Amino acid sequence: MSSISNPRAALVQPLAYAKELLGPLAGKLDIAKSALFYYLLVIYARKAYWHLRARGITASVKDVYLLVSQFVVRLFLRLPSMQRKVTTEMGKARLDIENKLVPKGPNVVRHLTLPEDGKSLDWILAEMEKMDIELTGQSGIWTEGKLSGAVYHGGEELQKIITTAYDRYCVSNPLHPDVFPAVRKMEAEIVAMVLKLYNGPDTGCGVVTSGGTESIIMALKTYRDWGRKVKGITEPEMGAAYFNIKVHVIPVNSYTRKVDLKHLVGSCINYPDGAQDDIAGLSELALKYNLGVHVDCCLGSFIIPFPLSPLGLQLAPFDFRLKGVTSISCDTHKYGFAPKGTSVIMYRTPELRRFQYYVNPHWTGGVYASPSISGSRPGALIAGAWAVMQHIGTKGYLDSCRSIVLATRRIADAVSASIPELYVLGDPPASVVAFGSKHPQVDAFEVGDAMSKRGWHLASVTNPKAIHLAVTRLTVPVVDTFLADLKDAVQEAKLAPSGKGTMVALYGLGESSAVGPEMVGEIATAFLDTLYKA
Ligand SMILES: *Cc1c(COP(=O)(O)O)cnc(C)c1O
């Protein structure tokens, strides 16, 4: 170490100096390298172990197979000849999407800059009228009711009630409760009313959010922060894209369509096929291990809290009556018929809800506190939701629930009894039903495409392939048309040359090949881009 005491040598020959300095450290460096190697090995082994434990051996082997095959496909797609082909095909798909969404032609006026002088209401309404029909030549196709979900309409009268309430609170913002006291009160009351429906305990509480997605995101944040504080979990093994927390995909039993009881979120009812998870089982597990359970009742919303047993349907317990259930999300903007942009996230205790809040006492703009993601929020929507709930009342909801659930049952029964090519997934207890095909010549997606030709906008389910219908008040009067069209569609699908339709192309691709998910992802991204084409 003589040269250390000789700074001049260091200046003249820095490299030699470094070498000399590190020389004696080389051995230690090797030890450090090995230590790092074993450290990483342990970390990855631990992760692999948890993955195996969560997913089981078969599923994990499948996961690895999928990863490897996707990697190979990605390499393959990088070949210049393949790249050219992919670019051409993607270009075609992009154009196809654009033609379906963006109106074109000499008569289409595009409003790309602010008008110099402001326009009148008459002008605005006239433009809206034009825009309504310039893409397809007709407006208001949803009124025919040939839709799955999408429009949870509560009737003509309700529309007037919503717009009147909206008008009154048009400029309100719950971020300023002192300025808009009525809006604060209405939000608190919406939460209270929904808690009552879900048998909330005395300590029950909640927040109104902008929709089911925000409600669920808030629950994830709450449990992540709860886990950190109460259980010391710094690497949560559950989660979502926004929070950098690992997602565990939970296997669903292919027959019952319920989640296998390993993880603590459940749906009631779930979106793809309307099945109800075993929430009581989840609740017991949660109590045993001191964990939380979130129940996604976004879709079940204002259907499942009402008694379905007089209709011959049985729903197992799912709400706060189960002691292990600690939070529930319920979309007022679905079967609650409230205006779009409202949902409620409920918690068993205020202590738990606190983990959802964003509080920043250090901000230079003042102490900032917001109950959810949003800062400013539309008080008008809260007023709309409050008005709707007051106007419909228990009796009104019970009536609509009855008609919707009975229509769903009628469809499920008719499919089982009179369309031998199809089968109903699981045993849907409420307002959603999905059908797969059990006939070798009938592809469920072909049936979906044949239904599209008959004016139906249905959704698709993959794994197994199926088509999905969320029944709404708009569907109730067209159940017979639906069944007649479905029978025809099955016959058409039987004769159709396979693999041609859009549903088949898009969703079929996603599940049938290694390249599928990648390409479908690309197409979905192109779809999002197209939404912003002015
Ligand atoms: C609709 C829905 C949600 C949330 O969707 P938003 O469109 O954000 O309201 C969540 N879970 C299920 C099961 C749903 O059906």
UniProtKB/TrEMBL annotation:
EC class: lyase
Any one Pfam family match given in the protein's UniProt record, by short name: Pyridoxal_deC
Enzyme Commission number, as recorded: 4.1.2.27
Cited SUPFAM superfamilies: PLP-dependent transferases
Keywords, in A-Z order: Endoplasmic reticulum, Lipid metabolism, Lyase, Membrane, Pyridoxal phosphate, Sphingolipid metabolism, Transmembrane, Transmembrane helix
Membrane topology: Single-pass membrane protein
Localization, UniProt: Endoplasmic reticulum membrane
GO cellular component terms listed in the entry, alphabetical order: endoplasmic reticulum membrane
Protein's GO biological process: carboxylic acid metabolic process; sphingolipid catabolic process
Cross-referenced Gene3D superfamilies: 6.10.140.2150, Aspartate Aminotransferase, domain 1 (3.90.1150.10), Type I PLP-dependent aspartate aminotransferase-like (Major domain) (3.40.640.10)
Residues that bear N6-(pyridoxal phosphate)lysine: 334
Cofactor(s) annotated in UniProt: pyridoxal 5'-phosphate
InterPro entries: GrpII_AminoAcid_Decarb, PyrdxlP-dep_de-COase, PyrdxlP-dep_Trfase, PyrdxlP-dep_Trfase_major, PyrdxlP-dep_Trfase_small
GO molecular function term, any single one: pyridoxal phosphate binding
Coiled-coil ranges per UniProt: none
Pathway(s) it belongs to: Sphingolipid metabolism; Lipid metabolism; sphingolipid metabolism
PANTHER family xref list: PTHR42735, SPHINGOSINE-1-PHOSPHATE LYASE 1
Similarity field: Belongs to the group II decarboxylase family. Sphingosine-1-phosphate lyase subfamily.
Protein name per Swiss-Prot or TrEMBL: sphinganine-1-phosphate aldolase
